Amino acid sequence: MTTQMYSIEVAGSPNIPGEGKPRRSILCPDKLVQSYQSSKGNSTITTLYENFLEGVQRSEGGQFLGYRPIVNGVPQPYEWMSYSRVQERVTHFGAGLAHLGLAPSSNFGIFSINRAEWTMSELAGYMYNYTSVPLYDTLGVSAIEFIVNQTEMQIVIASGDKASILLNMKSALPTVKIIVVMGAFDEALIIEGQELGVKIVAWTEVERSGLDNPVPATPPTSEDTATICYTSGTTGTPKGAVLSHKNFVAGISSFHTLAKHQKFFIPSVADTHISYLPLAHVFERLCQAVMISGAARIGYYQGDTLKLLDDVAVLQPTIFVSVPRLFNRIYDKVLAGVKAKGGIAAFLFNRAYAAKKANLRRGILEHALWDRLVFGAIRARLGGKVKHIVSGSAPISPDVIDFLRICFSADVYEGYGQTEQAAGLSMSYKGDLTPGQVGPPQLCVEVKLKDIPAMNYTSQDKPFSRGEIMLRGNSVFKGYYKAPKQTEETLETDGWASTGDVGQWDDRGRLVLIDRVKNIFKLAQGEYIAPEKIESILDKHPLVAQVFVYGHSLKATLVGIVVPDAETLKLWANENALKDKSYEELCAVPLVKETLLKELAAFGRESDLKGFEILKNIHVTSEQFSIENDLLTPTFKLKRHTAKERYEVEIERMYAEIE
Question: Given a cut of 50, is residue 309 above it in pLDDT?
Fold first, then answer.
């Protein structure tokens, strides 16, 4: 029996010392995908503006953008605008921006959490060939100042709260002349703007001026810049990745081609996506662009991640795109709940789980009895209608992937990509239930692995080639904005871009993520440590909400900062005569630290961590790592450098206690 391959080596590629041969998806061995045909077959989609028009055509007047009005503090049912209505509003708003003096190819800012006006502002940019520059909802002041000044931004579209932030910073933002405010705002904001020389104008007022005085669209070409997307980064100054329309459309086209081969799905008017991952990042923007290409509905969360599952319950999405951190929390809560119930409930769950896990090996996701009897309540956590789950932004544990397939009976895809290639590097395929891999290269790029001698990863490794993941193709960015040195460090002259990630090919030509080039450190005895791998394992322990693993190059052991899971810790406290203490008080109890240290050591060994990967001391804290306290990036990645500085005293104390 012939093994089905997912990628093959590029024919005729030369043998280059120190690197493996480039590979492409088996579905595009000869030519990389760049564009796709419209549903009517009468045009080729090459820009994000044409992609939007395709969505309008496919929708046939169907619903597009939905939001929940808040009345007296109470969120109401979703209200919807149709594709055709959004097209009208986008046309008027884009014309209104032209009246404010925004010229084609000029930069404009967007500063807000996800909302309908965010997407409509971006779509207006596509229609009139303006370049959007998102400002992260939680960027530090210094980064905002850097981005605004580097792009010489004159117009920023912002929500009222973010407009206030910009006005407070105005002395450091000399180029900003106009702030277009989404939603309602106080008259005081206009007065404050006048005093600072900034014109404050309502989003709807700009829209009205474009309605009254139409301006013809100025459609972009595929090579025009769609956006400058600044990487959040864990250290240093943000870098602005210059992404063209071609970069995004290549990724969308890859999905359309995969769908023709039944390897992925293309959304339709029957599908709904919830938008809560930051639109300032390419992952959510690529997701939205794919939704638009199929005329799906996009509903926005109300702006509070703590209320996300409430929004999900009301919206009932069919497509759920998220990051491992959220999926890990669902996994932990469900399994902790099963353990707490015990008895017949736990017996039934474990039996149902085992039966469905066995079925996964045969490619079967559904079970007539267990889906109804056991997993219905779990499916309801995501609204009860989810058919497709996509995980991205960071590697997800194989256990959690299996859990999602078993509990939600949904197709689960793991994607991998970065800002610099518009999130389009690889994606696992429909029907491939092998966990732990992120699929072959997307159809718009080719990928090779480059030796990293210092880490003992080489293209000659057995049984599988290993090395830094490099890619070239239609989704790869043009370079960093006004940063030739940084561009040169990432982008080679022949078009190959480095990722900083370490991968290996499996026996069927799929990528497996195994390491990070930069997030690696060496302990005193010479062992290399990948802290993210250890954290992803320890995160799955029911007593752990978050963990930061640290090792010093002059020390032989690892230490960690642990944020316990509040609910599970309370259950533990009840069983250990500590039920009267609050969560904060429990985190300071020596027995909690002692128990966690033992539990994590045992759990780590069960999970095949090596002896030098086991934490030898921990500090327990009740403060969650969050975007607000600057310990997480807006894509929920741990800011390792910031965390090290924040917990420097605790780290020194932990090492002193070990010695």
Answer: yes
